[in-house]
Amino acid sequence: MSNATLIETGDHLASGQLKSIVERIERREADKQEAADDIAEIYQEAKANGYDVKVLRKVIATRKRDLDERKEEEAIFDLYIQAVGESA
C-alpha cells in the first residue's frame, strides 16, 4: 500500500495494518537482541573454559560458508603462500 493510498483512504484498517507491521518488526528486533545476548553469553562461557574466542568466531564463520567455496579459497591461499613464501 502506497503512502498516497493511506492518506486518501484515511482508513482505520490501514492504520491498524501499519500498527501490526510495526509491532511485528519490533518483536523480531527484540528477539534478535535476545539471541545476540545469548550468543555473547555463550562466547563468555567458552572464554571462561579456556577457549580462544577469536578463533572460535572464525570457526563459526567458516562453518557458515559453502564447503566448495571454502576449499577453493583455501587452495588459492595455499598457492599464494607457496608462491611468495611464508614469513615469520
From TrEMBL:
GO MF, any single term: DNA binding
Residues annotated as domain GapR-like DNA-binding: 15-85
Pfam families: GapR_DNA-bd
Domain of life: Bacteria
Protein name, per record: Uncharacterized conserved protein, UPF0335 family
Organism encoding this protein: Bosea lupini
